[in-house]
Amino acid sequence: MMTDQEVSDHFWNSVKSKAMALPWCAKCARAFFYPKPICPDCWGEISEWKAVSGRGKVWSHSVVRFPLVRGPFEERLPYTVAFVALEEGPRVLSNIVACPPEEVKGGMDVQITYEERDGKWLYLFKPA
Ligand SMILES: [Zn+2]
What we know:
128 residues; globular
């Protein structure tokens, strides 16, 4: 079985290579998030990793107008934090970029995009 560290490394390396992949459980026939060594439903091991299509819909969102922490996100205020429901099923927490916060709507179609911030690659979403 993969260790927590190996699972985390595998996931973030897929983000870094701009092809985010999620662990897939063959028994449950679904992908899951957050990546961990075992399926949250059946506790079975990861069967394989599948790259996501990158398509999803805004499931829930909020606008951050004041800095919660000092750092690389501060200069981007205001910005939109959202749970995006991926086409594959899992909902992932991210930011919506390339779109003014007031134009982000629940259910809107978004597409994954990748960006390096302070040497770390992140997955973000923009309007599709
Ligand atoms: Zn399972």
